[in-house]
Amino acid sequence: MDYINWIATVGALSRNDGKGIVMGDMVLKGGISTVRYIWNSNGGACDECQALDGQEFDFPEDIPDHPHPNCQCYIEMIVDEQGDDDDEPCDCWDKMDELFNELGEIISNFENLASEIETEIEDTESITSEAENAVAKMDETLSELEPEVGQHLPDCEFNIDEYYAEMYAQRDELVMLIRDIISKIYPLQTLLATIYNLVSNYIELLGTRGDMDKYYHSVANCQNAQLGILGEQISEAACNLKEGYDSYTYVHTHKVSVEEALRDSIADQEANRLGRERGRQNPTCDCRILMQDLKPIEPTEFSIENLIDFILKRIKL
Questions:
Q1: Could you give the percent of the chain with pLDDT greater than 70?
Q2: According to the model, what pLDDT value does residue 299 have?
Q3: Domain membership of residue 219 as a residue range
Q4: Shortest CA distance to 250 belongs to which of 275, 235, 268?
């Protein structure tokens, strides 16, 4: 059956009632959106036609054939102008255009930000270079003054001890500031250097005898603090995790009480903190020397010779 021709020949275009275009007995409610086909039977229709009366169909091919010749039934085709939200035409392309526009703006802003950051890094590196040149000049001055340090009485006009100490402190402060900046400009390199210091000192600890863990832990933290503020922060976080883990596992692996494990962990953390503090205060000193006092004193065999030697050294002092 040719449904399209059947629908088209139901009536001729006659009028517009303000609600839509009336085509014979068919009403077209403007706009193309959701189409419905409704079967309508005239009064006195047969039982088969009455059974179809009022039924709706979504597609022309769903409409059944005429039940019999000379059937007076007709199909009302309604094109909804505003259907349900689910039936509205998809605005996906508009949304995609908006999304691409927003994405383009984000990319553009990110590129501008990246350019600004790159410029800031270049400016920072330039300032850092100038600061390093200033440190080099301060080192030259300190080297020239060093022979005179401690050579004059406090009231002597040529006494430069205080001036030398002040310049040395300013020099260390400037060095630490430079390293703080560099650690943040190059975080990956700082992270790798921090891990290297922790691991290398731990490996060296494994090859020693005695209670040397606090010494090597403090040395590693001292070296990491000398890398700059980021190295110090990474080292502190790593040591906090390790001590938290050790304080739990030592109860089982070393067969100690919880109190003993916590006491040892607190002592280790104090050594770590002291290492970071000394490393930051002395950015150019050897951490193995700075933390020498945390090395355990090795017992020596007592003898008369050792006692005499000790007394003679004290007399010379």
A1: 78
A2: 53
A3: 186-294
A4: 268
